[in-house]
Fold:
Amino acid sequence: EVQVLESGGGLAQPGGSLRLSCAASGFTFSNYAMSWVRQAPGKGLEWVSAITGGSDSTYYADSVKGRFTISRDNSKNTLYLQMNSLRADDTAVYYCARVLDSINWRYYFDYWGQGTLVTVSS
Amino acid sequence: EIVLTQSPATLSLSPGERATLSCRASQSVSSYLAWYQQKPGQAPRLLIYDASNRATGVPARFSGSESGTDFTLTISSLEPEDFAVYYCQQRRDWPLTFGGGTKVEIK
Structure:
């Protein structure tokens, strides 16, 4: 059974940092691109970042470029999101999601975790 | 950035009725559009990808279609579990973008 489980959320101060993790199981992790998608309280979905299976390419939303870094450790089946220079508008539930088929550039998300809440406030 | 505009914002229908949700792209996305369903407190679920392909395990009452930059998700006969928020998403270009969502509520 495919599972992805996020961790690392919590309260951070403006200007602070957090690192999110996403542990994957039930599939060959290195064969799949992965992504982070966030959802502010009561709002819609916002794509944040994506990384290919071999980490050769990374992609970012303009809103996080230069502040967030996506990475992965295929030996640990784990995806990461390092978030620096956090702002109040980064407050959201952050979802880890598997990309449906990156070989054919189908960057849709077929499996999602339950999300981890990041709150940025002083 | 490709902007996806969903309409209506809210759709009030009864079980058994047909639901028609719209997603309009600000420029061509070819057929590279997906639909997701999200229920309160849950992660989104992929329903349709590449405009008209049902994802694994998705019931046949869900279907997707396209006409130029206009995309439609149709639920042929609403079941009680279909009342939720629906989002479209494009993969034509970076950044990936989502529409603002359509809430399907019980009338």
